[in-house]
């Protein structure tokens, strides 16, 4: 059973989420504040966290940072905050997705399913278990990236995006394909997700992120990995 931790201080929304998730056979724990959320995350080890940013005791971004100190669990932010800098702050802290309130339950469940898929091990052919470049190495079986002798910490979403690109070196991967595989959506208006995450990957992997050597943008079409 997939276990979801809902971190939200609105009792009506919590009740709606719990009913909908349990009806689809998810296990659900709920926390009304950040401190309870961190305690439950450590005790219950959820498979996915749904997190409101406006909590009574701390900002949700601080909860994400605390979780990322020891866990790679996918974090779906549910927030009424619509400013792009708020979204970027949450994604930079380690969130995997950002869903603006109000949202449809169907979209939320699609995003949840995509988050669960990202954490499942995909079978890889032997030829693609390791990728070496002049600046970093990627072990696809161990889900590990090393740059300059040090492990590079990637969120599950960053990892999944990188994995799709590197297993097909030189091949253009379309925006639609990446959105469908990583987020479970294909709408072209979600391409800002890709821009944010590709920028994060470049900051972590490229020597000169402004002039990438490995993670190449094909404007209006998609992205390529050049090994």
Keywords, separated by commas or semicolons:
227 residues; alpha/beta; four-stranded antiparallel beta sheet; 12 strands; globular; Response regulator; phosphoprotein; WH-like_DNA-bd_sf; OmpR/PhoB-type_DNA-bd; WalR-like
Task: Write up what this structure looks like.
Residues 3-116 form the Response regulatory domain. The chain is 41% helix and 21% strand. It is built from 8 helices and 12 strands. It has helices at 11-23, 34-44, 60-68, 84-93, 105-119, 156-166, 175-183, 191-205, and strands at residues 3-7, 27-31, 48-52, 75-79, 97-100, 130-132, 136-139, 144-147, 150-152, 173-174, 215-218, 222-225. Strands 2-1-3-4-5 form a 5-stranded parallel sheet, sandwiched between helices. Strands 6-7-8-9 form a 4-stranded antiparallel sheet, with no helix packed on it. A hairpin with a 2-residue loop joins β8 (144-147) and β9 (150-152). The protein starts with a strand and ends with a strand.
**Low-pLDDT runs:** 121-126
Order of helices and strands: EHEHEHEHEHEEEEHEHHEE
Residue share in helix: 40-55%
Provide the structure class.
alpha/beta
Order of strands across the biggest sheet? Answer: 2-1-3-4-5
Query: In total, how many beta strands?
Result: 12
Q: Main beta sheet: strand number and arrangement? A: 5 strands, parallel
């Amino acid at each position: 059973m997939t276990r979801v931790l809902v971190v939200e201080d609105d009792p009506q929304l919590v009740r709606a989420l719990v009913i909908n998730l349990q009806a689809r056979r998810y296990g659900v724990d709920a926390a009304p504040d950040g401190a309870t959320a961190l305690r439950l995350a450590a005790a219950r080890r959820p498979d996915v966290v749904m997190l409101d940013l406006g909590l009574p005791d701390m900002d949700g971004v601080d909860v994400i940072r605390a979780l990322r100190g020891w866990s790679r669990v996918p974090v779906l932010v549910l927030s009424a905050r619509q400013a792009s800098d708020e979204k970027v702050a949450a994604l930079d802290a380690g969130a995997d997705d950002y869903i603006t309130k109000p949202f449809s339950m169907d979209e939320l469940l699609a995003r949840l399913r995509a988050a669960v898929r990202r954490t499942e091990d995909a079978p890889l052919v032997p030829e693609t278990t390791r990728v070496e470049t002049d600046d970093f190495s990627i072990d696809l079986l161990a889900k590990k990236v090393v740059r300059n002798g040090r492990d590079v910490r990637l969120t599950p979403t960053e990892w999944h995006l990188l994995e799709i690109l590197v297993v097909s070196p030189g091949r253009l991967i379309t925006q639609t394909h990446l959105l469908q595989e990583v987020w479970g959506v294909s709408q072209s208006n979600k391409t800002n997700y890709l821009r944010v995450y590709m920028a994060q990957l470049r900051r972590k992997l490229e020597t000169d992120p402004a002039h990438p050597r490995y993670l190449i943008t094909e404007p209006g079409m998609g992205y390529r990995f050049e090994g």
